[in-house]
UniProtKB/TrEMBL annotation:
UniProt catalytic activity: N(6)-methyl-AMP + H2O + H(+) = IMP + methylamine
Coiled-coil spans in chain: none
Gene3D superfamilies, per the entry: Metal-dependent hydrolases (3.20.20.140)
Keywords: Hydrolase, Metal-binding, Nucleotide metabolism, Zinc
Source taxon at top rank: Eukaryota
Domain Adenosine deaminase residue range list: 14-343
Protein name: Adenosine deaminase domain-containing protein
Subunit-level organization: Monomer.
GO molecular function, one term: metal ion binding
Length: 355
């Protein structure tokens, strides 16, 4: 009844983005601007132009080449409050221009002491930039990430920062980072503290076979997460547990396909496990993960889902409604998003006004 899914339609769709790493969401063009400003300094002159360093022409990054882009490159470029604020503002503008109405941005607190940036100053800078951007069109909250390489003390520091800045828009804690590193049992106390302070929990889950042992996945589930990211290398027993708990799922089509994360080296979008979860009772949020690296904005993720899994305009609106169930931002934000989706649906009913 509503016609074909077009890119205009998926852009206009009022979307919630729930799994976007701040540093991974910075576009190469924005990094290029930061690089141009810094080129004259001795440190800046050592760095390659981000237009070639971050999005290699020939191939997408895979899960092995991916993490060093942050450690060896972007963190050395965006290493002071000025560049963090500038990049954050650009990221917010780009999500807003892509029709995102609700954003949970996540980031790992980091320091650059030679530039006067402590982890707390980093978090304050991101939060101030979010506050300055305003909430009229795009409502943004922050999730603080614990890196799998962290010690318990570092993880506790992140949780303490999250607690301290809860009233400024920090809504949760994430566990992320190279899935080949670290031991997830390290963080039990940190997650317990977060939960005790009503912070919500989202965990990167079953990203690669090595991080998907029964023991690791059961350990992660024992932390009582509210949502899980990626959820690729699971077993029927784990899936049954995820279903019975109705955990929200953050699924990242382009990231998983381009970074070659699907089981057995499968490379087609139609092989993505979105197909298995779609239509079940878990809330699914399509997410970009790192739009700056994988180059696929969230409107394109919805377009790809429609294209590869044969979803109609109506199905996409329903998918967006489903994602709202699992947001961390509270009841008022949920109602705001449901109203936006209702209004959008009415516009779609009027064939001449429809996007
Ligand atoms: C396959 N996708 C992924 N899996 C696991 N961790 C990921 C990720 N994509 C990004 N990160 C994590 O987010 C950091 C960058 O953003 P922030 O500096 O925190 O804003 C990366 O260093 C990595 O730890």
């Amino acid at each position: 009844m509503w016609g074909d899914v077009t890119e205009n339609f998926t852009k206009a769709l009022p979307k919630a983005e729930l799994h976007a790493h701040l540093t991974g969401s910075i576009s190469p063009e924005c990094l290029h601007e930061v690089w141009k400003r810094k080129r004259s300094s001795p440190a800046g002159s050592q760095l390659e132009d981000p237009l070639s360093a971050c999005r290699p022409e020939a191939e997408h990054h895979d899960i092995l080449s991916f993490f060093p882009v942050f450690d060896k490159y972007i963190y050395n470029l965006c290493n002071d409050t000025e560049s963090v604020a500038f990049a954050t503002e650009q990221v917010l503008k780009e999500f807003e221009a892509d029709g995102v109405k609700y954003l949970e941005l996540r980031t790992t607190p980091r320091e650059s002491l030679e530039n006067g940036m402590t982890k707390e100053v980093y978090v304050q800078t991101v939060l101030d930039t979010i506050a300055k951007h305003g909430k009229e069109v795009l409502s943004t909250y922050l999730i603080l990430s614990i890196d799998r390489r962290n010690t318990l003390e570092q993880a506790m520091e992140t949780v303490r920062l999250a607690i301290k800045y809860q009233d400024k828009g920090v809504v949760g804690i994430d566990l992320c980072g190279n899935p080949l590193k670290g031991d997830v049992t390290t963080f039990r106390e940190a997650f317990k503290l977060a939960k005790a302070h009503n912070l919500r929990l989202t965990l990167h889950f079953a990203e690669v076979p090595q991080s998907s042992t029964e023991v690791e996945l059961q350990t992660l589930l024992s932390y009582q997460p509210d949502r899980l990211g990626h959820v690729i290398h699971t077993t029927p027993a784990i899936e049954a547990e995820i279903s019975s708990r109705k955990l929200g799922l953050e699924l990242c089509l382009s990231c998983n396909v381009h970074a070659k994360m699907l089981p057995g080296g499968k490379r087609e979008f139609t092989d993505h496990h979105f197909a298995n979860w779609y239509g079940q009772s878990n809330a699914i949020a399509l997410c970009t993960d790192d739009v700056g690296i994988f180059g696929s904005p969230i409107s394109n993720e919805y377009f790809l889902a429609a294209w590869h899994f044969n979803l109609s305009r109506y199905d996409l609106v329903e998918l967006c409604r489903g994602a709202v169930e699992s947001i961390f931002g509270g009841e008022r934000e949920k109602q705001r998003l449901y109203s936006l989706l209702d209004e959008f649906e009415k516009i779609c009913d009027n064939a001449e006004a429809a996007p």
